[in-house]
Amino acid sequence: MKFKLDWTAIAPFAALLILGLTVVVPNAWILGLGAIALAAAVFAAVHHAEVVAHRVGEPFGTLVLAVAVTVIEVALIVSVMVTGGPEKAGLPRDTVFAAIMIVCTGIVGICLLVGGWRHHEQSFQAEGANATLAVLCALSVLTMILPDFTSTIPGPVLSPSQLVFVGIVSLVLYVVFVFVQTVRHRDYFLPPVAVLLPGHVEDDVHAPLPTMGYAMASGGLLLLSLLAVVGLAKLLSPAVEAGVAKAGAPEAVVGVVIAALVLLPEGVAALRAARLNRLQTSLNLALGSALASIGLTIPTVAAVSLVIGQPIALGLGSKEIVLLLLTLLVSTITLGTGRSTVLQGVVHLVIFATFLFLSVVP
């Protein structure tokens, strides 16, 4: 596979050009172009991450995608935190919570539903799913529920020492998980031999391996795409907040918008894999993003909070705690057997619909 000039190669440079224009000529039309460029840069970033992932193979490939998506998410969160001031103390919590709900109920739900509808029943490795969910449960409770019950500083805010501890624990859990996924028990996360529908071709498997030069070029374009995302997100974040406020929606919806924007490309990739009867790859993509969202985002925003002296509120409200615990419980049950049908998909999607409805109508 040789490098070719297409929209994914042009998008990062175009996004950077539009970023410069928004700084020089800040008007509504340019901001509109900036929003389009931001979306294009996100999709281009994930595409180039996929190229690099195809070169390095599984399960390293899904890890590359998860880290790339998390870098985008962290950039969006930090940019809004810095520009928004203390009143944005709950944004990291809202975004991470939204990412977990979107991944574990929305993306996983649609993948289970579509895959089950097309293939009746799909199988995956329960060992890998159970290991991922164990780390996800621990990270979720330690970072977003425990802060409500600490006493050094009344929740949902942690003291500086507690914030450092939670950040370190989150990073340790994620690093150990990556070690298990890629080295110690790599076979738990490798997809079984895919069973395709007649006439379908598994492009990711049969596509020629990218050359080293192609992969390196995609790596460079990935960095440019992420740079464009960071800059555009910082410029467009006030417009997103104003739109949410004008619609009369709660401020937490901003976190949902950020998480949805970041996870959309990876969600499409996970859905495509499920349609090709590769549910293991779908779960690696989806659940890996949820883990990275907590394991990398929380330590980063904790460090930023301590450096700039801006407190962050990590503890969830009672309604969000109920939804989170329900999601973790259902995910553990539905993904604990190694097999799935449309029923599991519908259950996840009903919880997702409840989350979206209560986000707008709390």
Task: Please supply descriptive tags for the structure shown above.
362 residues; mainly alpha; two-stranded antiparallel ribbon; 13 helices
Short description:
By secondary structure, this protein is an all-alpha fold. It is built from 13 helices and two strands, in the order H-H-H-H-E-H-H-H-H-H-H-H-H-E-H.
Approximate helicity band:
over 70%
Q: Taking strands numbered 1, 2, ... along the chain, how are they ordered across the largest sheet?
A: 1-2
Would you tell me the overall average pLDDT? 82
| Tally of contiguous helical segments | 13
Q: Return the structural class.
A: mainly alpha
What is the total tally of β strands? 2
Major beta sheet summary: 2 strands, antiparallel
Cα separation of the termini: 50 Å
Radius of gyration from CA coordinates: 20 Å
The unreliable regions are 194-206
Any idea what the shape is? Answer: globular
DSSP strand content: under 5%
N-to-C series of helices and strands: HHHHEHHHHHHHHEH
Overview of the structural elements:
The chain has helices spanning 7-24, 28-56, 60-84, 91-119, 126-144, 160-184, 203-206, 212-246, 253-275, 279-295, 297-308, 318-334, 342-360; strands spanning 122-123, 339-340. It is mostly helical and 362 residues long. The chain has a two-stranded antiparallel ribbon. The model is unreliable at 194-206 (pLDDT under 50).
